[in-house]
Amino acid sequence: MNYIVLDLEWNQSNKPEEREASGLPFEIIEIGAIKLNDTFTMVGEFSEIVKPQVYHEMHHITSKLIHMQMQELQRGKPFPEVADRFLQWCGGEEYLFCTWGNLDLIELQRNMKHYNMTPLSDKPIKFLDVQKLFGLAYEEPKEKRALEYAIDFLQIEKDIPFHRAFSDSYYTAKVLKCIVEKNRDVLRNVSYDVFHPPMRREDEVKVQFDTYTKYISRQFRNKTEAFADREVSSSKCYLCHCNLRKKIKWFTPNGKHYYCVAHCEKHGFLKAKIRIRKAEENRIYVVKTTKFISEEEVNSIIERKEHAAMLRKKK
User: Fold this and answer.
1) pTM summary value
2) Which of 4, 84, 174, 204 is the most exposed place for a label (fewest CB within 10 A)?
3) 224-238 confidence digits (pLDDT tens)
């Protein structure tokens, strides 16, 4: 198994209406990557700039951040050519993408789709979000730190400038190696990019972590069809695998997030949360997480349900 530590730089229009009309809100202008082997040793590097085809002026913030001018980009090659070389460089061996945050794989696939390239996958892609892993290993899981903060925290030498695709992939690889040396088990906390949500039941994602589970459903025509599906609506204890009766039935405070609470005689109260996500062609899919909670948290959810009901009555 190899690990492809990827970082992208992208440009956008200074005019929001142009971004919307283009169908490509963020145009990739640089691809940088580090290849790590199964001992997390650097065994390869990739760095190429991309010649813009959509936006021919640099966004004012992008220009200040990456210290790159449009004239330099003109020396690059078109995105399909650079992306093809990058994917060939990734190699034929099994590999896992690693990124700082969860945006790079989305934008890579969006740019590939814009140029009618063969998709990376037709279903969710498993990857390592090194930003999330840093929080899990050293701070709070939900804390989203900047890459430079992590470098300072870990006292890693700053031997090249930040905010270029290659340098940020290089530093992300350094952070990942530190995380692995501290506690390799943290790597069990994989993430899933859902640029292409599952189309079939067999492609659905079901994964159990240390303190919660995640389920990513196939696509449905609407919410009614989704909640009619047993896998979506059921509550099951992920420790003893028993189907549970709900103490608090599904409710929503906002039409996007849904909650319920069930009770397991052996393991206590289980909260389930559903997020409704949009897919193409006006379809939807569901991301459901389940975790055990305290009785105090159950009471808080009851209050939230009552508040939501009161607001509906006022309408």
Assistant:
1) 0.91
2) 84
3) 999 999 999 999 999
